[in-house]
Every structure is written in C-alpha cells, then in structure tokens.
Amino acid sequence: MNKIKSKSLSIFLAFVMLCTFVPTVNLTADAAVIAGFEASGDTAYYNMHNQGIFTVRAFEDPVNQTNPIRHFAKGCFVGDKAWGITFSDGHLSLRDYSITDSDFLINVTISSTINLIGEGVFSNCRSLQNIIVVSNNPHFSSVGGVLYNKNRTKLIKYPEGKKGKSFIIPSTVTEIGKGAFSRLRILENLTIPASVKTIANDAFDDFGSIRNINVNSKNNNFSSVSGVLFNKTKRNLIKYPAGKTATKYTVPKNVTTIGSYAFYENSKIKEVTLPSSARTIDDYAFVRCTSLVRLSIPKGVKTIRPAAFLAPNKNLFIRTSRNSTAHKLATSRGWNVILTNVKRRITFRNGKRTAKRYNIEHNELLTAKQRNYKIKKKGFKFGGWYADSKFKRKFNFKQRITKNHTVYAKFTKNKK
C-alpha cells in the first residue's frame, strides 16, 4: 500500500514539475513576472525574457485593480522570446516601435480597447504570422492575420512571417500604410486591386521577399509592368521589388521620377539604366543595393535628393555626362565615374597599318568583343596584343580606359 502511495505521489510531483515548465504565463495572475515591468503614470515599459504566451495585465495591482496600465511605449517588447502576446481590455495604445525585433513571436491578439497602433509596431518580427483583433474593437480589424483599420479601407500590417507566397489585397482597401509590406520573408507575389488610391512612400521598405507587384488594370492611380510598380501614367517608378533576382534593369521610357525607396535593399541588381526622360531621383531610391556596380544617369536628371545614395557599394560606377548633376555629385563624394561624352580611343595596329579602332567612354571597360579582337596573317601565328611596338609589354585588357591607347599585334612565323 505504501509503495502504491509513493508511486502516486511521484506521478503527482512529476505532473506538477511538467506544468511548471509549460511556457504559458498569465501576467494578470503572476505578480512575480512583474520584476521586469516598470509603470509610470499611464505609460508602461515591459521586457519579457521567458518563452511562452503572455496575457498582459490591465493593472499594476490586479487584486485591487489600481494603477491601470494604458499605454505601451517604445521598447516595451523588444527582442522578446514570447510566442504570443495577448493584450487585455483597458489597454489603449501600442506606441511607435513598442513591439519589434522578435524572432519568436507568432501571434498577437489586440483587445477591444486599443485605439492606437503606432509606427513601426511589429517591425522586424520575423516569425509573426497572425495579428488578431477581437471583433468588438471599434478601431481595428483583422482578416487572415492581416491588420486593417475597422472598415478595412487601410491595410496597416501584413505579418512578416505569414505563410503563403501570394496575396491579393481585398477590394475594400483604398490605402496601404507605412511599412505595411516591409521585411517580408515568404510572400513573393502581391496583387493590388482597383480600389487602392494611396500607397505610403515606404510601404515596401527594408528587406523583402516580394518579386512581383501586380496592379489591377482598372486602378486609376497605379500600374505595373513586369512586376514593377508605377503610378498610372508610368512616369513615376514607385517600387522595383526587393525580391527580384534579375541582375540588370532598364527603366522604361517616359519615366521622369525614381521614387523614394524605389530600389531599396534589392541585393541582386547589378546594373540599372535610367531613360533620357528621367529628371529626379528621390531619397533612399538606391540605398542598400549591395550588388549595384553600374548606374547610368542621363544629363537630364537635375534633382538627386541628399539621401538617394547612402554609403553606396564602393565598386559602384556612375555612368553620366561630364558636368551633369550626377557627375558633380559623384565627384564631390569621391565615387567612380564613367563619362559618356568624353571618348577615349584604342587603336589596333598590324605593323604600320591600322586594323581596327574603337571609341570608348572615359573610364569604361572594354567589351568582350573588343577584348577578344584578333587578326590573321598568312603563314604566321597571332601572339597577342602589346602596349609597345617592340613587344615588351602585353596590353592589359582588364584596365579601365582613361586615355588613348595604341596596341600592336605580335606574330611568329609558323614552323614548316
């Protein structure tokens, strides 16, 4: 009998220990967790360090229900390891950047009383799949884990870790908010309906997996070509998706403005050519394009915003005309420049005869065709091109051409 009691006690204790390690914490009932919580007036700061599902309590003193917690300020939930956060009735606002930088957070539940969700809330929450709003909240709503205002005319946040490679924005939406589709990890194809009238400048900023933005042809404000977003007249390039994998892109004719964040953080693009119609490059247009090594900017571009390029790739070459706005900017910042209206000449000589002549833009590289140019001489074997007529130094075809060159063909007589 004692053995049975002992065994039962062991099982009960094991069960209690197991429950102790289940990562679910109810802050309303567990005052011990409040060690990491500070409240001052109506602003609360909270840092959680344990994995689990957290129900954030509505009062500092939940027993007597005193000192209500109303607002969550910047940094409340930064880098936390919670899998889920549930807010209580009584909470009023999630202020700017109050929930950020979590690799663990999957679900967030917004209570009925929250009336403000600030800028940057949920940014860099890489695993976030669902933002759930209770049905009786008069200010916000959610469908499929996506956050909207109450009447779903504004799309506020598409969770960064949400499953699914394609998403069609509902036809009720007229506005896409700031950061709505930023830092996405899975979504590749986005469809914008005819109803959308406004898209925030940085709706698609930061890292992103989106490869194609397609706009309904009946939309009166926006359009798309090959997955690239433009305004309706196609004069303003709004967004070249960060997830596109092409290495070269020629901006279509008639585009006059490269918009803010247009190419922001596309890590694959290497060469971009702007059309002669281009006039303006807005802030952050080419920031963090880590692979960009060649950007052709016509002389017609008169406005380049101060933050259009921030810490560009050191191997970037700006291809433009001498004394253009782009040339002056590049020179002032010590960037590499290719001058389209300054020509250098390379002359291929066969003895005293000119075999071929190429005109090269200043500081440009020779093309593969130019580098591989060869000539034939009956009874002789071609031995390459030399920088001097005495064949002492082979010409370096990999160098950038910054002056005129004459190169000489060397031949050796064939053996009989």
Can you walk through the features of this model?
This protein has 416 residues and is mainly β. Among the domains are: 90 residues, Leucine-rich repeat, LRR (right-handed beta-alpha superhelix), CATH 3.80.10.10; 73 residues, Immunoglobulin-like (Sandwich), CATH 2.60.40.4270. Helices cover 8% and strands 36% of the residues. It has three helices and 37 strands. Strand 25 and strand 26 form a beta hairpin. The chain is elongated, with a radius of gyration of 31 Å. The chain starts with a helix and ends with a strand.
Rg estimate, integer Å: 31 Å
CATH C-level label of the domain at 245-334 = Alpha Beta
SS elements, strand count:
37
The backbone outline, from C-alpha atoms, is elongated
The biggest beta sheet reads: 8 strands, mixed
Could you name the CATH homologous superfamily of the domain at 245-334? Answer: Ribonuclease Inhibitor
Q: pLDDT below 50 for ≥5 consecutive residues: which ranges?
A: 1-50
The helix/strand class is: mainly beta
CATH architecture of the domain at 245-334: Alpha-Beta Horseshoe
Number of distinct helices: 3
Question: What is the helical fraction, as a range of percent?
Answer: under 10%
Compute the separation of the termini in Å.
Answer: 111 Å
- In terms of DSSP E residues, the strand content is 35-45%
Mean pLDDT: 86
Q: Oligomeric form of this entry?
A: single chain
Give the CATH topology of the domain at 245-334.
Leucine-rich repeat, LRR (right-handed beta-alpha superhelix)
Which terms would index this structure?
416 residues, mainly beta, Leucine-rich repeat, LRR (right-handed beta-alpha superhelix), Immunoglobulin-like, 3 helices, 8% helix, 36% strand, elongated
